[in-house]
Amino acid sequence: MAQESSIKSRGPIAAHPVTSAVIAILTVAVIFFAVYVPLYARATPKVGDFPFFYFYLLAYMPVVAIVCWIIITLQKRLRPLAGPSGGQDGPAAASAGFGEVTK
Question: Which of 11, 20, 79, 91 sits between 20 and 30 A of 56, alpha carbons compared?
Fold first, then answer.
């Protein structure tokens, strides 16, 4: 019984360190590949009529969308389940849409 209460009192990041680490690594990787300019700031090689810079951006945007979807999916797994209290973690908060106010 005491062990269950100690597990429930941990935050979602402490309860799932591997998932949190994967989220952090994916976020840093997406930012790094966008900010590290020498990686893509060159005119050659050309891919068709496109310089490499444009090809990199065209390929990078769908990859970022997929990685962001993975990050959001992993973050949903970290959210605590709706509690029976009906408070902020209750069923009303879970069913409320974005921007809706629950009373």
Answer: 20
Q: In sequence order, what are the residues at sequence separation of 6 or more whose Cβ sits closer than 8 angstroms to the Cβ of residue 95? A: none
State pTM to two decimals: 0.59
Crossing angle (nearest 10°) for helices 52-78 and 17-35: 160
Q: Do 46 and 38 touch, CB atoms closer than 8 A?
A: no
Identify whether the C-beta of residue 43 lies closer than 8 Å to the C-beta of residue 52.
Answer: yes
Closest CA to 67 of 19, 20, 18, 23: 23
For residue 3, the Cα-to-chain-centroid distance in whole angstroms is 30
